[in-house]
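Table S2 (continued). Query chain:
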Amino acid sequence: MARIYRRKTEVLLVVEEIILEIVFMLSVIISRYRNTGQFRGLNVENVPKYRMADRIPQQIEHMSELVEMSDTDCFDNLRLNRDAFNRLCYLLRHMGWLANGRYVTVGEQVTLFLSVLSHHLKVKVVKFHFKRSGQTIHTYFHNVLRAVLKLHEVLLAKPSPVTDDSTHPSWKHFKGCLGALDGTLIDVTVPEKDKARYRTRNGTVSVNGMGERGRKVVQFIFMFVNRKEDMEKLLKHVL
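Corresponding output:
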């Protein structure tokens, strides 16, 4: 017991010496700053103060540039024109039960949601553009996502099976079939250092993708590529 007590005493003495050295260094630094005169004549009232209200005009201006100026700007940033954007907001508000937040409207919630999806932006980038905190972006992104999932009855493509009396030359032999599922090579443009990973046995630079569509030519139901980063690039160019 005496040995343990002696060790604890030695440790406490070492800690006390370290604290005294830190206090001494801080006192030296403060005295040097005082001697340079940086603390002299400092008026606290003249120090600029940060206010959250100063960000509101910037937020309004950013939203106006995205969804009110022109269809071109709206489509380039959100992959929707202004009419489609307003229709989506209406559906999410009345069928997805998406409501205005305390400081964030439904329009801004949908805008930041589409910004992340359309350009695969990180939360840090979105919060800089929208002048919001990362927690706000994260919260409202998932709110809109849940509202979109509630619209699956409206937004999800529902292919109709081939009927028994179908006379279509391409589908009459596939009774009850919902669509077609096939894989294909999609040509891609990648940096020179990454071309070796995407080069096929035929010498082309491409990725292997799988798609499912209904009987209508433009009715795509499902699409998948074999790499996560390739799927992100595909969504970025398709949306």
